[in-house]
Amino acid sequence: MTDRLLPFDAPLERLKALHPKRIDLTLERMLRVCKALGNPQGKLPPVIHVAGTNGKGSTIAFLRAMAEAEGLSVHVYTSPHLVRFAERIRLNGTLIDNDYLAGVLNRVEIANDGQPLTFFEATTAAAFIAFSERPADLLLLETGLGGILDATNIIAAPALSLITPIDYDHQAFLGNDLTTIAKQKAGIIKPACPVISARQAEEAQIVIERAALKAHSPLSVMGQGFDAYREADRLVFQDDDALLDLSLPRLSGAHQIDNAGLAIKAARLMGWSDEAIDKGLQSATWPGRLQALKAGPLYAALTDKASELWLDGGHNPHAAKALRAHLDILGSKDPKPLKLICGLLNNKDADEFFAAFDGLSLEVVCVGFSSDAATDPEVLAAAAQSKGLTATTTISPLEAVKAVQTDAPVRVLICGSLYLAGDVLALSEETWPI
């Protein structure tokens, strides 16, 4: 990787300084700056708007692969990025050009005229300009945080609204109970626009049902109106109109069956073919989410090449439970000593994260990463030890991989933060297909 400055670096830094808070949920600033820009949010292709706690990016990855297999041109907006900021904005299948990105950011800066604007609002406005100026058949739009007051939620009438599983995360901004959090996420539901929901806890499901009823929006709920499950080496999807025998998702993890099911239901409502759906399941990629690393310096540091190295950016209790389920499946098929290399932001619940691994025989190595908000490894190790886990610290993921070597093959999982995942992927471009 190079340290040279890119054309968009300077405007990004200036935009970061416009608002003292990194997160400040309101739509007023976003509506103001977009009005000054000519309201690009009203000139977008049909939008599939996706909110939820976990699974948003994976669901969008499936949708993008399915839509492109259908022959559609697709814009995509996701966050955060792992290595390069341009990962957030994909225009017709290609990451936004550096010079064009710099140009739209400069236009936001000029239109904003020095007024308060959060970084996410500024970059979302820039993305809306790009999406409005480059023709496409579809825009897959991921919320940044929450829903009702998220900067993306100035879209008036999406083609579909999708809500992935809702769980505890960002409680300081979204609330401390599932009902309150769900009210934020369900805020993307728009009048008379179809809604698809993943399986939810009862409290969250009640909120979504009430919001859809109030908006007169048709609601499809996984486990009720449709479902997806694994049967042998196939994925079975069924709804009121069809029973489909499909390929298993390319993305690893049992939880990806549900993410795929959500995407399949959306694809069917959009009228895409079964062939495109199946092809999308086989071709979807999403770096940093249960990604098996088979290249780069960390993989090279494994002394026994029968060892496995996995990377996942999951950073909350719900994600930790999904990781635990995947490790259980791997362990039942091919037992190996298990090593966890972990780093968490200091606003995450480390106790609950490590609680998901209760009963597993594993060694935890805690590391820091490139964020000012990274939890001190010693503090993180103490949290792991409080849950009965063996935990040590080291200075980097590379040193951690070296530290967990044994005479036998090992299974290593690097997890806990998308920032940590980005650091790992940045070490070698071979490990993160885009």
TrEMBL record:
Its EC number(s): 6.3.2.12, 6.3.2.17
Signal peptide (residue range): none
SUPFAM superfamilies reported in the protein's UniProt record: MurD-like peptide ligases, catalytic domain (SSF53623), MurD-like peptide ligases, peptide-binding domain (SSF53244)
Top-level lineage group: Bacteria
NCBIfam families membership: folC
Pathway the protein takes part in: Cofactor biosynthesis; tetrahydrofolate biosynthesis; 7,8-dihydrofolate from 2-amino-4-hydroxy-6-hydroxymethyl-7,8-dihydropteridine diphosphate and 4-aminobenzoate: step 2/2; Cofactor biosynthesis; tetrahydrofolylpolyglutamate biosynthesis
Record's keyword annotation contains Plastid: no
Keywords: ATP-binding, Folate biosynthesis, Ligase, Magnesium, Metal-binding, Nucleotide-binding
Catalysis performed (reactions): (6S)-5,6,7,8-tetrahydrofolyl-(gamma-L-Glu)(n) + L-glutamate + ATP = (6S)-5,6,7,8-tetrahydrofolyl-(gamma-L-Glu)(n+1) + ADP + phosphate + H(+); (6R)-5,10-methylenetetrahydrofolyl-(gamma-L-Glu)(n) + L-glutamate + ATP = (6R)-5,10-methylenetetrahydrofolyl-(gamma-L-Glu)(n+1) + ADP + phosphate + H(+); 7,8-dihydropteroate + L-glutamate + ATP = 7,8-dihydrofolate + ADP + phosphate + H(+); 10-formyltetrahydrofolyl-(gamma-L-Glu)(n) + L-glutamate + ATP = 10-formyltetrahydrofolyl-(gamma-L-Glu)(n+1) + ADP + phosphate + H(+)
Residue ranges annotated for the Mur ligase C-terminal domain, each copy included: 310-417
EC top class named in words: ligase
Source organism: Asticcacaulis machinosus
InterPro entries on file: Folylpolyglutamate_synth, Folylpolyglutamate_synth_CS, Mur-like_cat_sf, Mur_ligase_C, Mur_ligase_C_dom_sf
PANTHER family on file: DIHYDROFOLATE SYNTHETASE-RELATED, FOLYLPOLYGLUTAMATE SYNTHASE-RELATED
Protein name per the record: Dihydrofolate synthase/folylpolyglutamate synthase
Family in the record: Belongs to the folylpolyglutamate synthase family.
PROSITE patterns: FOLYLPOLYGLU_SYNT_2
